[in-house]
Design goal:
The structure holds 2 protein chains of 2 kinds. By secondary structure, chain A is an alpha+beta fold. Chain A has a single domain (2-91), classed as Folate-binding superfamily (Folate-binding fold, 2-Layer Sandwich). Chain A is built from 2 helices and 6 strands, in the order E-E-E-H-E-E-E-H. A 4-stranded antiparallel beta sheet of chain A has the order 3-4-5-6. Chain A has a two-stranded antiparallel ribbon with strand order 1-2. The longest helix of chain A is centred in the middle third of the chain and has 10 residues, at 35-44. The mean pLDDT of chain A is 92. Chain B has one domain (17-184): Probable tRNA modification gtpase trme, domain 1 (Gyrase A, domain 2). In chain B, 19% of the residues lie in helices and 35% in strands. Chain B has a 6-stranded antiparallel beta sheet with strand order 1-2-8-11-10-9, covered by helices on one side. Chain B has a 5-stranded antiparallel beta sheet with strand order 4-5-6-3-7, with helices on one face. In chain B, a hairpin with a 2-residue loop joins strand 10 (148-156) and strand 11 (159-165). The longest helix of chain B is centred in the C-terminal third of the chain and has 16 residues, at 169-184. Chain B starts with 16 loop residues before the first strand and ends with a helix. The chains are: A alpha+beta, B alpha+beta. At the A-B interface, strand 2 of A face strand 5 and strand 9 of B. Chain A: This is Sarcosine oxidase subunit delta. Chain B: This is Sarcosine oxidase subunit gamma. Chain B: InterPro entries: TrmE/GcvT-like.
Chain lengths: 96, 188
């Protein structure tokens, strides 16, 4: 399986380690109302879709960047990859 | 005073070297290494007059060289300067960056081919899961080699450098030498 790294091109999936659902980037606010409930969901509950899934991969034997890889869990087709940093910064409105 | 004798990463009194057919392997004990990373929001420096390469790149000039190791991170090489305070000099040239001495953490093995690029490509095909044909001079990457993490640098058409963890120097040498020896026995 090859991962299309946004900076380095096609790289062998063996160079990566897998973390899981990219929703982990959206960490809830620990000080907000209902934080315990939100953290329970964040830590323990995952969607388990049969089909397109956005997930976090770490390029451990490579440039050590975190990627969000879009993968079809049924066919293992890789539909795209982007730098998790770019996605997280865009979600924050581009602020560094 | 205790009488200490310095040894190389591979444990010898002198750098190890060996040849198999067109390929020769040699331990490069003179290579100074220092990592350089940008701090948040910092602009890219031009340390020691060297233009730092982009992703997957290696450049040389002004007696030093650099390869890209990650976003905003590079490794600087000083050929023949392992005995100097290379990292300190780099820090003085790039004071706004984080610089770390790396020389003693790594072993560098230089591979040279006497028969053009093909033996280098054949060796790469045996050892690393990188497209050897697309990995031309000026390319550098970090990848896995027999479960060890290494930097692979294509210094020229007929030159390849492998930089690996110093504590695994013996295993890395064994892997490279064995692959080169087996290539020698294969029909071209």
């Amino acid at each position: 399986m090859l991962i299309p790294h946004p900076l380095l091109g096609l790289r062998d999936a063996q160079e990566f380690t897998y973390l899981g659902d990219a929703a982990l980037l959206n960490r809830p606010d620990g000080m907000a109302e209902g934080a315990a409930e939100a953290f329970n969901d964040y830590v323990y509950l995952r969607d388990n879709p049969a089909g397109v899934h956005r997930e976090l991969w770490f390029h451990e034997q490579g440039d050590r960047s975190w990627l969000i890889v879009t993968r079809n869990t049924v066919t293992h087709e890789i539909l795209g990859a982007e730098l998790a940093r770019d996605v997280a910064l865009a979600a924050k409105g581009g602020a560094q | 005073m205790t009488d200490l004798s310095p040894i190389t990463a591979l444990g010898g009194a002198v750098p190890r070297s060996v040849s198999f057919g067109a390929l020769s392997l040699s331990e490069n004990t003179g290579l100074a290494l220092a990592s350089l990373s940008l701090r948040r929001g910092a602009s890219q420096p031009v340390p020691m007059g060297l233009q730092l390469p982009g992703p997957g790149g290696w450049t040389a000039g002004n007696g030093v060289a650099a390869f890209w190791t990650g976003p905003g991170q590079w490794m600087l090489e000083g050929e023949g300067r392992a005995e100097e305070s290379f990292a300190r000099e780099l820090k003085s040239r790039a004071p706004d960056c984080s610089v770390t001495e790396q020389t003693d953490g790594f072993v560098a093995i230089e591979i040279a081919s006497a028969a053009g690029p093909e033996p280098i490509r054949a060796l790469m095909r045996k050892l690393v899961n990188i497209d050897a044909a697309g990995f031309g001079p000026g390319c550098a990457t970090r990848t896995g080699l027999e479960h060890m993490t290494v930097f692979v640098i294509r210094r020229a058409e007929d030159r390849l450098a492998i930089i690996g963890m110093r504590s695994l120097a013996g295993s890395l040498w064994h892997a490279l030498a064995q692959a080169a020896a087996r290539l020698e026995g294969e029909p071209a």
